[in-house]
Design a protein that fits this description.
Length: 606
């Protein structure tokens, strides 16, 4: 631990937690400053404040006081090689901590103080400590979702039956048909499912059904948390069957853009509603609590909201796991009775849990339409936390699955070199679509950005391997044909977005340009238009969300890494279309399957 990362003003317990690497210097600074402003002197209250700031920083919406020691940190190893034992830290006694917070001038409801930035909420599972802003957001999300769930739109059952018969002529029970019926009969619908379960296919049919029932004038807003996901949603909706009659002008935007975010916050909000009758949000697992709160605030009360995503994937980089919370929270409302009359036969055989969820407008799509069986089975086993089955499938291997020891990188090396040479060949020849297609053929994914298992290390290794194969050292900064590119910031003018990947190609006139896949017509940009790009031979699993590749090689971190979780493994595996190669130890796999991301929130409790 370097001095620079230790907050100078921290004293007592906060300092010990800071020095141990559990609290960051910023957590301590904020807590100490707030305590000074509020006149709080209790060391327990200051520690709890710092831990509440840390909780938000690590993705939770609040701090669970009863599980305060259950803190996800990487093993901190001292110079003599010993690992930090969290039990040696000066943890406060739980009763005393709660007593201190109940009378703290930092806490809303405590004695008067000029600033009360915390809120203490008692729940059946114990007390939760919030930064007040996140409590307000969570309350807003809960209030709006509950109000919408209790207010069903009027729907003519016969008309809906007719539309469904047209869109789903086959008589067999069909979850996609139920999903369309739910979206028509409820103000909020959640379409949850893994990759290739037909979520976009279903969204297109929802939009077609709503247009048939409410007319072509229906105003539709399509959005996703990232530009890349928005581009993909737009492309797949436009690529739907013409017989659905969806307008080719349907455009998708990032959620920030949909909400009209500018210097003064969102243009659309609780007093100036979004001008849409239907809003579809794709990749909702990546939406933070703050953004969901802004979206719900900005919706017209009568607008339909369709949330689409995979709740088993990694959550947003900011606080909250709203999609997973919405799917998990207890359902207390009744379904629109029209639903049962129209598609009751479709869910006759569903589990009690799925029927419960249905009352809350949530439909889980379960049939894989795209996935090849072995990868799907592996992803299912990870999702179901069946570690023995995961290891069994990995050990069995096959065409689609490879499981290798950490030092067994020959296959990976070959794949990286072969892909780079093939991409460079197509790029040099000016064959843009082949170059783009080939560059998505393989992707190396890591949990960490830095360190021995991190992106930077593998970037360097890849460049060396390719350099050795082609007989000259590659300049990591050169803009050369075949160089794979990653966009690191949104650029609306250039129409490239954070997370977009592309490749440098040589145009017919000999000029080098960056190419990005955009449906039938790739986007070509002169290097001077690229403000924030870097080369990408490896990327973090977080960054790969919303994309799929032919083969995915996943380098697992050490089993002690706190990033190694079930959601991380699931997200990595489900990025693969044809083959997944896992490089790591069995211990790391088992630890990953066992460890579920714990993002504390009050939303999932009801
Ligand atoms: N009911 C269906 N009948 C025929 N084909 C289907 C059906 N549902 C989905 N598909 C096909 O399966 C493939 C995957 O569907 P889709 O892209 O909608 O899945 P998704 O869940 O949105 O995937 P992703 O998570 O990758 O976005 C598509 O080619 C789609 O046309």
């Amino acid at each position: 631990m370097t001095e620079a990362r230790v907050a100078q003003r921290g004293k007592g317990a906060v300092r010990a937690f800071n020095e141990a690497g559990v609290l960051g210097a910023a957590d301590v600074h904020i807590a100490v400053r707030l305590a000074q402003m509020a006149g709080e002197e209790s060391p327990d209250a200051v520690l709890a404040t710092a831990l509440a700031v840390r909780a938000v920083r690590s993705g939770s919406v609040c701090l669970e006081l009863s599980g305060i020691r259950d803190i996800g940190v990487d093993a901190v190893v001292a110079e003599d090689g010993t690992e930090l034992d969290l039990d040696t830290l000066p943890w406060p006694e739980p009763g005393a901590l709660l007593d201190a917070l109940r009378v703290s001038p930092l806490v809303v409801g405590g004695p008067a103080g000029p600033l009360r930035p915390l809120r203490l909420v008692d729940t059946d599972d114990g007390p939760l400590l919030y930064l007040a802003k996140y409590h307000r957001q969570e309350e807003t999300v809960r209030r709006i979702l509950d109000a919408r769930a209790g207010d069903h739109p009027d729907v003519d059952a016969d008309a809906l039956r007719g539309v469904l018969a047209e869109l789903f002529p086959a008589p067999e029970p069909d979850r996609q048909r139920v999903a369309v019926a739910v979206a028509v009969t409820h103000r909020t619908a959640v379409i949850a499912g893994g990759p290739g379960t037909g979520k976009t296919h279903t969204v297109a049919r929802i939009l077609a059904a709503l247009r048939r029932l409410h007319g072509d004038g229906l105003r539709i807003g399509l959005a996703a948390p990232t530009g890349k996901a928005a581009a993909r949603l737009q492309e797949s909706v436009r690529a739907q069957d013409e017989s659905l009659g969806l307008p080719q002008t349907l455009a998708a935007a990032t959620l920030h853009r949909l909400l009209g975010w500018g210097h003064n916050g969102p243009r659309y909000n609780a007093t100036n509603h979004l001008p849409y009758d239907v809003v579809v949000v794709d990749e909702t697992s990546m939406v933070s609590l703050t953004l969901m709160c802004q979206l719900l605030d900005a919706l017209r009360p009568h607008a339909r909201l369709i949330l689409v995503g995979d709740p088993n994937q990694l959550a947003s980089v900011d606080a909250g796991a709203v999609l997973a919370d919405i799917v998990d929270r207890p359902v207390t409302v009744a379904a629109n009775p029209v639903l049962d009359r129209v598609v009751g036969a479709d869910f006759d055989e569903w589990s009690d849990e799925d029927r419960d969820r249905l009352r809350g407008g949530i439909v889980r799509l379960t049939r894989g339409w795209r996935f090849d069986r072995d990868i799907g089975a592996l992803a299912d086993a990870v999702r179901d936390a069946d570690e023995d089955r995961v290891v069994e499938l990995l050990r069995a291997g096959g065409d689609q699955i490879e499981f290798l020891a950490p030092d067994d990188v020959d296959g990976l090396r070959r794949e990286i070199v072969d892909t780079a040479i093939a991409v460079a060949g197509a790029a040099e020849a000016g064959d843009v679509s082949t170059a783009l297609e080939l560059s998505d053929r393989h992707r190396l994914l890591c949990a960490h950005r830095d360190g021995p298992y991190g992106v930077s290390w593998w970037e360097r290794a890849s460049l060396e391997w390719i350099g050795e194969a082609v007989g000259h050292r590659l300049d990591p900064d050169a803009f050369s044909a075949g160089r794979p590119l990653l966009v690191t910031a949104n650029d609306y003018d250039a129409r490239i977005y954070n997370g977009d990947t592309g490749v440098v190609v040589r145009r017919g006139d000999g000029e080098l340009v960056a190419a990005f896949a955009r449906g039938a017509e790739p986007l070509l940009l002169h290097p001077s238009r690229l403000s924030s790009t870097q080369s990408v031979y490896a990327m973090t699993i977080h960054r790969s969300q919303g994309s799929q590749y032919g083969t995915v090689s996943v380098v697992l971190p050490d089993e002690r890494s706190s990033l190694l979780t079930r959601e991380l493994l699931y997200t990595a595996i489900t990025r693969a279309k044809d083959k997944v190669r896992i490089i790591g130890t069995e211990d790391a796999v088992r630890e990953g399957v066992r460890r579920k991301v714990r993002r504390a929130s009050g939303l999932r409790r009801g």
